[in-house]
Specification:
This protein is of the alpha+beta class. It has two domains: 14-172 and 228-317, BirA Bifunctional Protein, domain 2, CATH 3.30.930; 330-419, 3-Layer(aba) Sandwich (Rossmann fold). It contains 15 helices and 16 strands. The protein has helices at residues 17-33, 47-53, 59-64, 83-92, 139-154, 173-184, 193-201, 212-217, 230-245, 290-293, 308-317, 340-352, 366-375, 386-390, 412-419; strands at 37-38, 44-46, 66-69, 75-78, 102-112, 124-133, 160-166, 250-252, 264-272, 280-286, 301-307, 330-334, 357-359, 380-384, 393-398, 404-408. Strands 1-5-6-11-10-9-7-8 form an eight-stranded mixed beta sheet. The chain is elongated. It starts with 16 loop residues before the first helix and ends with a helix.
Length: 420
């Protein structure tokens, strides 16, 4: 239908804008405090970027991408996540050649995934993400987690914890792959069709399967932590020490692998621990090989992404109401056509003075204008016209106390602004 949004999309309505703007403001402030600067990448990229970056064994690439041919017969994909585009921007613009680390964040970037719409995850949703390039220390992951929890705490969310895991590196992961394959070898026919394919191409992905039979099969599977090399083990141990020093509640969950192939070493999720136990608000981790994999120099990196819609959903679940700023400080009411020019000028002058001002544009009667001022919760009404206009004054009424003051028309806007 022409007047219905496509399935899996949703309008952000004017009455909800303050929620998004409050979230955005807190995200920007926290990111800036940690030294991150904003990056904006295209909504679509060449499909090859996601095939090579996200991984062709992932559900995102196999089932969820919006991919099409453009008029030049090039394969184009609406971006299904934010990291690959950030890495492409880093490489194309040689940001790796500048002083490292290079810290960037993206804010409410549209993300597209063709999947069954669900609470907090639509076919078009919006993500905030932070990416740090050039830092190999586990301080990077600890900093990201701390900043993320700071954002969620500033919004008023409670009952959150962090689940962490290490999925090793190319040096130690092959031994674990072999052990996992051996463990699952006697249960191949019990795996879902997708996991039977994953078992050969990327067995780690079996641990991420949401099919109940597969989840049950891997419940007692060997842990990657048992196969970590010395470097990965030290990195993971140091991360835990840093989180403990920061008093960040966390637990090790050996079944976290994340749904993207580029992760190495650390992976993490921020979890809701009460009311909606098991809900992951967001996830991230380290991806030391991705920049090189996409054609850049070897560069350590880590980051995370979180959906704004999922944050809003959890705010609603926890009963957190973000205050709405006043829509109007002063409503300029006029007493008819003869006062329209003066009311227009006063309204414009108030806005220039930094006052949120509204005036009648619908031809309402004076009584209807007063009702409208109440509806938009105006703090004051400035009445222009009649005897007051003839005497060169504006009548200002405080709608809370009903007190009235007469202010000379000359410099009325400055006087009202000073009064406010």
């Amino acid at each position: 239908m022409l007047t219905q949004a496509p399935k899996g999309t949703r309008d952000m309505l004017p009455q909800d804008a303050h929620i998004w703007q409050t979230i955005e403001g807190i995200m920007r402030r926290r990111a800036a405090l940690a030294g991150y600067r904003e990056v904006r990448t295209p909504v679509f990229e060449h499909t090859e970027l996601f095939l090579r970056g996200v991984g062709d064994t992932t559900d995102i690439v196999q089932k969820e991408m919006y991919t099409f041919k453009d008029k030049g017969d090039r394969s184009i994909t609406l971006k299904p996540e934010g990291t690959a585009g950030a890495v492409r921007a880093l490489i194309e613009n040689h940001l790796f050649a500048d002083t490292l680390p290079c810290k960037m964040y993206y804010l409410n970037t549209p993300v597209f995934r063709y999947e069954k719409p669900q609470a907090g995850r639509l076919r078009e949703h919006h993500q905030f993400g932070m990416e740090c390039f050039g830092g190999k220390s586990p301080v990077v992951e600890a900093e990201l987690i701390s900043t993320l929890l700071g954002i969620l705490g500033d919004l008023g969310l409670k009952g959150l914890s962090v689940n962490i895991n290490s999925i090793g590196c190319p040096n130690c992961r092959p031994k674990y792959h072999a052990a996992l394959k051996e463990y699952l070898s006697g249960h191949v026919n019990e795996l879902c069709e997708d996991c039977r394919e994953r078992l050969d191409r990327n067995p780690l992905r079996v641990l991420d399967c949401k099919v109940p039979t597969c989840k049950e099969l891997v419940k007692d599977a060997p842990s990657m932590l048992e196969y970590l090399c010395d470097d990965c083990r030290e990195h993971f141990d140091q991360l835990q020490k840093l989180l403990t020093a920061r008093d960040i509640p966390f637990q090790v969950d050996t079944h976290i692998v994340r749904g993207l192939d580029y992760y190495t070493k650390t992976v993490f999720e921020v979890m809701v621990t009460r009311g909606r136990e098991g809900l992951a608000l967001c996830g991230g981790g380290r991806y030391d090989g991705l920049v090189e994999q996409l054609g850049g120099p070897a560069t350590c990196a880590a980051g995370f992404g979180i959906g704004t819609e999922r944050i809003i959903m959890e705010l609603e679940n926890q009963g957190v109401v973000l205050p709405q700023p006043p829509l109007c400080d002063v409503y300029v009411a006029n007493l008819g056509e003869e006062a329209r020019e003066q009311s227009f000028l006063l309204c414009q002058q108030l806005r220039e003075a930094g006052v949120k001002a509204e005036e009648d544009v619908c031809g309402r009667s004076l009584k209807a204008q007063f009702k409208f001022a109440d509806k938009i919760a105006a703090r004051y009404i400035a009445l222009v016209g009649g005897d007051e206009l003839a005497r060169g004054v504006v009548k200002l009424r405080n709608l809370a106390t009903r007190e009235e003051t007469e202010i000379p028309c000359e410099n009325a806007a400055a006087s009202i602004a000073a009064l406010l």
